[in-house]
C-alpha cells in the first residue's frame, strides 16, 4: 500500500498544482477534506474548512497580479496503521505575468484516504523568502 499511496498522493498534488495554475476551483474542491485546515506561511492566518479555502482561492484567482503557487513534495511518509500520510516539501509563489519567483518556503501536508481518495486534511506553510 505504501508505494501505491505515495504515487496516488503525488498525483493528487500534481492535480492540485495544475488547478492552482489554471485557477480551477472545481478541481481543488475534491482534493480537500470537508474540514481541511490551512495555516498560511507569512501571517499564520488559519483557513478552516473546504468552503473557506475555496473562497480564499477564488479571491486569490481574481487578483489582478496573482501568484501561482506550486508545492513540490520531497518526502511522503505513509502510516502503516491508519489511512493517513504526511507530505513534506517546498513551495514557491511565482508572479503570473512575469514568472518571477516572489515567495518560497517549506510545507507539510497531512493526507487521509477517504473512500479510496486521498484528501488533504491539513497544510502548514513556512515562508523563507
- Low-pLDDT runs: none
Q: Which class best fits the helix and strand makeup?
A: alpha+beta
Number of H- or I-type helical stretches: 3
Indicate the radius of gyration in whole angstroms.
Answer: 14 Å
Q: What do the pLDDT scores average to?
A: 96
The first-to-last residue Cα distance is: 36 Å
Fraction in helix: 25-40%
Largest sheet: 6 strands, mixed
Strand fraction: over 45%
Run of helices and strands = HHEEHEEEE
Largest sheet: spatial strand order: 2-1-6-5-4-3
| Total strand segments | 6
Morphology call:
globular
In short:
The protein has 129 residues and is an alpha+beta fold.
Structure characterization notes:
With 129 residues, the protein is of the alpha+beta class. Helices cover 29% and strands 47% of the residues. It has 3 helices and 6 strands; from the N terminus they run H-H-E-E-H-E-E-E-E. The chain has helices spanning 2-22, 25-28, 50-62, and strands at 32-39, 46-48, 67-78, 84-95, 101-114, 117-127. Strands 2-1-6-5-4-3 form a 6-stranded mixed sheet, covered by helices on one side. Strand 4 and strand 5 form a beta hairpin. The protein is globular and about 45 Å long. The N and C termini lie far apart (36 Å). The mean pLDDT is 96.
